[in-house]
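Consider the following input, taken from an annotated entry for Oxidoreductase (Pseudolycoriella hygida).
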Amino acid sequence: MSFSSVLITGANRGIGLELVKQLANSADPPTHIFATSRQPDKAKVLNELASKSSNIHVIECDVKNEESIYHLVSTVSSQVGCNGLNLIINNAAIAYKHTLATVNVQDLIENYHVNAVAPLMITKQLLPLLKTSAENGHKTLVVNISSTLGSISKYRKICVGDYQYTYRASKAALNMITRCLWVELKPIKISVVSICPGWVQTDMGSPDADLTPEQSVTGLLKTIENLSEEDGGKFFTFDGKPNPW
Ligand code: NDP
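Applying the prediction step yields:
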């Protein structure tokens, strides 16, 4: 991996956990893998991985909580020091299902908060560490794990009606945040992309999904590794194909 420090949110299960596994087991693993969990004491598999790999740092973080993000930033900062942080993978998310008949303000706000607001605030708070990485000449990247369900142009082709006002709209917002961040951070050599992991066999995706977490994450990491400067500000599928906004 060309990244020596990587932060993954929501790393105690699903795609986040598999990202930690594959990064730790790669031929050239990062020096630091910061793996966040809301409840680290219950993150059994993640803790087992961390007990075998000293480069995995398990950090408590609820991405909705600003204090928790400050704690995350100070822990990451104390580990990476003047090398900065190379890669953020904003992975944590929730998927509330609602129809127009059932949708309510509280669930809408929570879904937007976790899926769109939090990735922006995490990126904002970690910006000094990203800048340091870029100034040191390292490839520096923010990956927002989005969803094709958030694609407005693909809406008619993939129709899962009960996700629309909450999950779909939050990922569409995240995609716009990717684009806005990219425009602002490109001049200082920090790249930002959205990637959909595919339909994956996790708690969110269901056991009937197309891909195992292993298949999805193998594709995601290859796509991330191969991203060049020209790819910034774009939306990709897990296997590196262009995804329409
Ligand atoms: P899971 O539901 O399996 O895992 C979600 C992760 O997010 C968990 O670690 C969960 O922690 C964490 N999380 C949720 N809320 C918060 C919070 N407030 N603070 C911190 N962490 C939180 O989902 P997947 O692994 O399937 O999804 C990973 C990403 O991939 C998401 O962004 C999702 O939208 C995206 N995606 C997934 C697809 C799929 O088919 N699986 C398809 C398209 C996109 P906890 O255990 O504490 O709840």
